[in-house]
Design a protein that fits this description.
Layout (H helix, E strand, L loop, with lengths): L4 H14 L7 E4 L4 H12 L4 E3 L6 H11 L3 E4 L1 H4 L9 E2 L20 E7 L7 E6 H11 L7 E3 L14 H5 L4 E2 L9 H10 L2 E6 L1 H7 L3 H7 L4 E4 L6 H10 L3 E6 L9 E4 L10 E2 L13
Parallel strand pairs: 1-2, 1-3, 2-5, 3-4, 7-8, 7-9, 9-10, 10-11
Antiparallel strand pairs: 5-6, 11-12, 12-13
Helix pairs in contact: 1-2, 7-9
Length: about 290
């Protein structure tokens, strides 16, 4: 199925109207489909920060994030809503969303929260990170030159902030987003078909996942068509970099950034170099090298 930006705008407007009764966070527990993107856009339009509940999260962990984030509304599919009914929070589902033709005017200011993302922290206890609207827009602007001209293939876990690179930041740059089924994320043969069938130009993934995909001959042939490979979350090895460069002339980026700084703060174009570093600051970012006295 293909969904134009006009439908995204219409559906996001419907979500914004449905969520307009509060400015408190909304917990979104939808699968990797067009409705997830529309719901995120609608929450942003309503001026409500979202926290994403990955379908792979255990029930207990999902409830912990809901409580800690202060979410006052749950956005869930109808077949999942009953699992959270005991929390006694309002539940909105895509299936019951009314259509409202009037345009909803976003009440959010640049300094208002856009989303919360949870990291394990140093203790293993989930730690909520708050990101503002202006920081998300700044990251999206900084990403503009890193995207290829083709579509963005969504591969990241929905609970990780890198998912914003292939969702909201991509939408803010007017990109087409290809959303595989969850089971296809472990099928490089199927991903190869999506790359060739939908003219994928950008993929963001960890070096270990990329290395695993490259064991598949069909994926090796398909990756040649990709314009921009963005690696992050782990160190990329010289051996993997050499393997990629033998296969393709794709732009290969090493991107770095903690969640607290909005997904990414620096990048290094690795083509034509043997020096794998964190690179230069992204637009609107600064890097500081500190010693033990700072």
């Amino acid at each position: 199925h293909r969904y134009p930006y006009a439908l995204l705008e219409q559906r996001a407007n419907d979500y914004a109207h449905a969520l307009s009764d509060s400015r408190e966070p909304v917990a979104i527990g939808l699968p990797r489909t067009q409705e997830l993107l529309m719901a995120m856009a609608g929450a942003a339009q309503a001026g409500r920060p979202w926290v994403l509940l990955s379908p792979s999260l255990p029930q207990e962990r999902a409830e912990e994030l809901i409580r800690d984030s202060g979410a006052t509304t749950l956005l869930l599919s109808e077949d999942n809503a009953s699992s959270f009914a005991h929390l006694e929070l309002p539940i909105l589902s895509p299936q019951s969303l009314p259509h409202v033709p009037e345009a909803f005017v976003c009440p959010a200011a640049p300094g208002d929260l856009a989303y919360l993302v949870y990291t394990s922290g140093s203790t293993g206890h989930p730690k909520g990170v708050e990101i503002t609207q202006e920081n998300l827009c700044s990251f999206a602007s900084g990403m503009s030159s890193l995207y290829g001209h083709g579509a963005v293939l969504s591969l990241c876990n929905l609970g990780f902030d890198v998912f914003l690179l292939e969702s909201m930041a991509a939408l803010l740059n007017g990109r087409t987003i290809v959303l595989p089924r969850e089971e296809d994320l472990e099928r490089p043969q199927r991903l190869a078909e999506l790359i060739t069938g939908f003219a994928v130009g950008t993929m963001a993934l960890t070096p270990s996942r990329l290395s695993a995909y490259l064991k598949n001959p069909a994926f090796q042939r398909a990756v040649v068509r990709v314009e921009s490979l963005i690696c992050g979350g782990e160190s990329i090895s010289p051996a993997l970099l050499h393997q990629i460069q033998l296969l393709t002339d794709d732009r290969i980026y090493n991107q770095y950034g903690p969640s607290e700084a909005t997904v990414g703060v620096s990048y290094k174009l690795l083509n034509g170099t043997n020096a794998i570093t964190a690179g230069r600051p992204m637009d609107n970012c600064k890097l500081y090298v500190l010693d033990q006295y700072c």
